[in-house]
Fold:
Amino acid sequence: MGTVARDVMDTKFHLLSPETSIAEAVRLFKEAGEREGRRLFGMMVVDGEGSLAGTLSMYDILLVVRPKHIHIWGEMDDLDVTGLVDASCERVRSLLVGDIMTTDVTTITADTHLFMIVDIMLKKHIRRLPVVEDGKILGIVYISDVFYHLLDRFVA
Amino acid sequence: MTVIDNRSVLSGIKVREAMRRQVVRLDRNAPVAQAIRYFIKYKVNALLVVEEDFRAAGVASKTDVMGAYYAGLPLETPLEAILFGPPLFCEEDDTLESALGTMRERGIYRLYVRGEEPDATAGVLAYPDIVGMLYRYCRRCAKNIFRHRKPYDEGDGNCYLKVREIMTPSVKAHGVDETLAQVMEGLSEYRVGAVLVRDRQGRPAGVISKSDLMIAYKHGVPSDTPAGEVMGTPVFSCHREELLARAIQSMIYRDVHRLFVHSGDPGDVAGVFSLSDAARARSGSCRACIPSRIQVE
Structure:
């Protein structure tokens, strides 16, 4: 059983462009998830040269969809909220992936040890880590894959 | 015993009760493009710009970013080139009235709140936070209009503040054919967050806010682009006789900071009412709180 990133990384990763609209990105999330047979909650974003420019996760999108004053009107139990979700999603329509992607991305190399990966994921509350070497994206490591890879050691 | 008729519902309330504890920070070397991403994602109007050791260096607001757009600065420009500083601080135990007084005197829209540790920032206090807190207080009050079982009775109307009493009775507007640069000059001159855009017949066609301009900047839209191509629609408006509480509710619900005010014809806008106006009025939505305050000498 391997103990470094290359042993658990998924090399069938999906990429977005900063110029892609959020609506298109969500469609690509769904399509890629259906192809892989699992729900995707984040994708890597590359610039024109193919270098990692950032990541777009469901959190990035939900932050924008969330109404600014939700902490106030959440108390309005008599409020007619018909159409609220549609209105909220409409506000996102004019935005591009590059407008809301996370650019401060932590990356690992193919030789990063699994426990180092676990440490990074727990400390930074992140679920996926791009594997990058010499500016080239090699794959992506998901927290669920690390978990089940380690778990196999218990049941072996 | 003296009846104090100039005390507001804010009397005695501390900054800690209204402040927001999430402070959005960025390093002073971060590019303007990153600041725009943060403005969009976290829905804030300003960022605390910090040194490498997290000490506060200054504030970068949407106005500063708009200035960078107007000046034609590249999106890679570091924040330190546009920040305004140092930031002004208040304490968690300061009264809201004194904090609002400082904001008014200094012509600023937010104060950062000092933390317990040296050089630490515990939170930020901005007008919308104060309005939000007042709104929650008002909602729980027995006199709240939303607690009335019967439909709103005009006979009780004298008790409740209306939009016309708080609104700014004039509107800054630009034409759809004016350029974004002209709109930015107007926003800077009027010191407002958004302007109305009128069509060629003079009727309200849309709104351009600093947020719209930031996104245009990020998308590489030239500043000589006509306002009509960037403006947001529709124009959210209300009647000047609308109850203040309902207007605030409407803004909160629609995620907007201002409503344009008309006298019956939405095509004839005569004023504007913002969440900041509501905070500056130093009141909730009702007069009941003001005469009930009695000071014993």
User: Anything to note?
Assistant: The interface with chain B takes residues 60, 63-64, 66-69, 71-73, 75-76, 78-79, 84, 87-88, 91, 94-96, 98-101, 103 of chain A (CB under 8 Å).
